[in-house]
Amino acid sequence: MSRSTQQREYHIVVLGSGGVGKSCLTAQFVQNVWIERYDPTIEDSYRKLIEVDGRQVIMEILDTAGTEQFTAMRELYMKSGQGFLLVFSITSLSSLHELTDLRDQLLNLKDSTHVPLVLVGNKSDLEDDRAVSRARAFATSQAWGNVPYYETSARRRQNVTEVFVDVCRQIMEGEREGARVRAAEAYDRGYRRRRRGEEGEEGSTWARRRRRQRRGGTRCSIL
Ligand SMILES: Nc1nc2c(ncn2[C@@H]2O[C@H](COP(=O)(O)OP(=O)(O)OP(=O)(O)O)[C@@H](O)[C@H]2O)c(=O)[nH]1
Ligand SMILES: [Mg+2]
């Protein structure tokens, strides 16, 4: 199978308070449709095949409930998710504040500070109703360890694909980093084994070097 036809499957979770536009963003990304009415979500999942940096990727997207009475499953999907969109509405400061608790819960569950995530300020078409300045949102993203910040409009389909692709790239980068670390560790283990093996053999370089050191100390010849 060539590199570009290998398919990877990534689990993306869309989080945020009720009414910020999680379902509309997901529907725009997956189906290219705009939904005007507000119908609170219990939980919906979608699959979409896209190409990211020349690789076929299947995104399994979980659109979660923002309203409190439907959030019982939160821990479960936080554990199984690999990448997260943390969405607030630029028209509601409290929706940004509520993300802080969500992020804390997420990092605690993952027991890591390096969770692939993107901060998303949705409803950017409602500039006249803006309650969260760009500077404020950007400062939050910096405080979270320089996570990417995007402003999106599900209504106008602005930056919609970008946020999903960004989180996907972060997962892919994490996998590459993991592979690099595993390769370095395997090399290290192999090196130690090789060295032990050589030390065990009488005629080996290490053994000869040790015998020389015992006999004559350091090799130094002054003519
Ligand atoms: N103007 C504008 N309205 C939006 C945008 N995105 C969503 N909305 C509207 O906001 C309302 C809520 O959108 P949803 O996508 O259902 O919100 P949600 O975050 O999924 O809400 P829950 O499922 O309850 O958590 C709907 O009436 C949408 O039409 C946007 O980008 N711009
Ligand atoms: Mg919804």
What small molecules does this complex bind?
guanosine-5'-triphosphate, magnesium ion
H/E topology pattern = EHEEHEHEHEHH
Work out the strand percent. 15-25%
If strands are numbered along the chain, what order do they take across the biggest sheet? Answer: 2-3-1-4-5-6
N-to-C span: 64 Å
Q: If you average the pLDDT, what whole number results?
A: 88
> Judging from the principal axes of the Cα atoms, what is the shape?
elongated
Considering DSSP H and I runs of 4 or more, what fraction of the residues is helical? 40-55%
What structural class do the secondary elements suggest? alpha/beta
Number-wise, the strands total 6
**Count of discrete alpha- or pi-helical segments spanning 4 or more residues:** 6
What is the alpha-carbon Rg in Å?
26 Å
The biggest sheet amounts to:
6 strands, mixed
Poorly predicted sequence stretches spanning 5 or more consecutive residues:
218-223
Protein name: Ras-related protein rsr1
Task: For the structure shown, list the relevant keywords.
alpha/beta; Ras-related protein rsr1; binds guanosine-5'-triphosphate; elongated; six-stranded mixed β-sheet
Walk me through this protein's architecture.
By secondary structure, this protein is α/β, with parallel strands linked by helices. The protein is built from six helices and six strands. It is about 45% helix and about 20% strand. The chain has a six-stranded mixed sheet with strand order 2-3-1-4-5-6, with helices on both faces. The radius of gyration is 26 Å and the shape is elongated. The N and C termini lie far apart (about 65 Å). It binds guanosine-5'-triphosphate (GTP) and magnesium ion. Magnesium ion (MG) binds near residues 22, 23 and 63. Guanosine-5'-triphosphate binds next to helix 1.
